[in-house]
Design goal:
The protein contains nine helices and twelve strands. By secondary structure, it is an alpha/beta fold. It has two domains: 131 residues, Periplasmic binding protein-like II (D-Maltodextrin-Binding Protein, domain 2); 88 residues, Periplasmic binding protein-like II (D-Maltodextrin-Binding Protein, domain 2, 3-Layer(aba) Sandwich).
């Protein structure tokens, strides 16, 4: 009788252990530099991934990481993924894998609200234009030899210098421009977006090459959010 009780208890413990393992939620650590002036991690990307994690059944933890070196940290396994307004490019695809695209975000110009006659980079000959280092915005400025390029570790620093007259314009992704120039109370009425997006680009979540263990749940969650239209609600909150 005693042996039967012990056996039953052991079996129950094993079954409980299996159940606990089955219910264990995958935790994905994502690096981002999407922070406000108080260094709080906020923004379109953050809300979208939070919704994707809920839809995909995984837990997400965001890690505030400076853009300069963010991909090196991914390669060094300091975190599982990068979601920080990362444009999917053929060059980046050579060293990392990307999630499904989650928004089309072409490059656009931001200037002071008092500026007139500027619609595109070609209108800024002899002027200083800012961008975040290593971004497609910085690459676009580099195509114009008569435009002076100034690069920053954080895009927030570029907007601060624009507001203070230290640079003449900022080039960045359209969602970033909307969040920084239109949604930020500090710059409302001071900065404005001009012209139309002059590139056709898509954001994606970056993971280490071949890391399907991380990419698959991210894709599952993101696709559910895109299919349901929840992403449009998040866009309306942050990008308009």
């Amino acid at each position: 009788m005693f042996k039967r009780i012990v056996t039953a208890l052991l079996l129950a413990a094993v079954l409980f252990g299996f159940a606990a393992c089955a219910k264990k939620t995958t935790k994905i650590v994502i690096a981002t530099d999407m922070v406000d002036e108080s260094k709080n991690i906020v923004g379109f990307d953050i809300d979208l991934m939070t919704a994707a994690a809920k839809a995909g059944g995984f837990e997400v933890e965001f890690k505030n990481t400076a853009w300069d070196g963010i991909f090196a940290g991914l390669e060094g396994a300091k975190y599982d993924a990068v979601m920080s307004s990362v444009t999917i490019t053929d060059e980046r695809k050579q060293t990392m894998d990307f999630s499904v695209p989650y928004i089309n975000a072409g490059q656009i110009l931001v200037v002071k609200s008092t500026v007139t006659g500027v619609e595109k980079l070609a209108d800024l000959s002899g002027k200083t234009v800012a961008a975040q280092i290593g971004t497609t915005g910085a690459f676009e400025i580099g195509k114009y030899s008569d435009v002076k390029k100034k690069e920053y570790d954080e895009i927030g620093l570029a907007f601060a210098d624009l507001a203070n007259g230290r640079v003449d314009a900022v080039v960045c992704d359209t969602p970033v421009a909307a969040q920084s120039a239109l949604q930020n109370d500090e710059y409302k009425g001071t900065l404005k977006i001009v012209g139309k997006p002059f590139t056709d680009e898509y954001y994606g979540v970056a993971v280490k090459k071949g890391n399907k263990k991380i990419l698959d749940p991210i894709n599952k969650g993101l696709q559910k959010v895109l299919d349901s239209g929840e992403n449009k609600t998040i866009e309306a909150k942050w990008l308009r």
